[in-house]
Fold this protein.
Amino acid sequence: MSDYLSVNGALPDSAGQILHWRKLHGLASSYAVAQLAQNRQPLVYVCSESAHLNSVAEELEFFVDKSLPVTLFPDWECLPYDRISPHPDLISQRLLALHKLPSMTEGIVILPVGALIQRLAPTNYIAAHTFDLHVDDEFDLQAFRQRLSSAGYYSVDQVMSPGEYAIRGGIVDVFPSGADNPFRLDLFDTVIESIRQFDAESQRSGDALQHVRLLPAREFPVDAQ
């Protein structure tokens, strides 16, 4: 591998310059990118197809330093204006990546070429619709409901997918975009008494948390404007 690629000279010296890496067969290309990532600068790895995304991510996570983040940015896997909406899990992954990108100083972002050519939400939209909740915070239920609706969340009877919320008396269930599990807020009057993860299938509460961050549920505004 080292005979074919000198990592120090593997990046362009100026804008517009193209370098061709040759004789990188099998896992060699992922190994080369992982070596470049050790320079502690953000890299973008563009795959030709969405089907390659997860396999490339597994290869890079094997080679790359564990302290360096590997972030997936999938495409919608459907055509614009199609009758089929993107899957909520894909939107959740994309929004998490968009939230991380402005402050990203190192690591690798993996995306298919289809995602590279799509228009993206402006960074100020993501920032304006991201908010934090902490235990013992004052909590206005009606204002929270309005804020979730403006961020694109759907009100449901039982939370199952990212971008959904349910309110039952003093219990608020939310499945934030970018999260692996939904969260349950227990209210005491107008104060957040506890925050817990819970399983969407069994609805059983799990680990207690002190803080949770909510990203918008959609990549575009759904307010009146």
The chain has six helices and eleven strands. Helices lie at 28-37, 53-63, 88-100, 113-116, 123-128, 141-150.
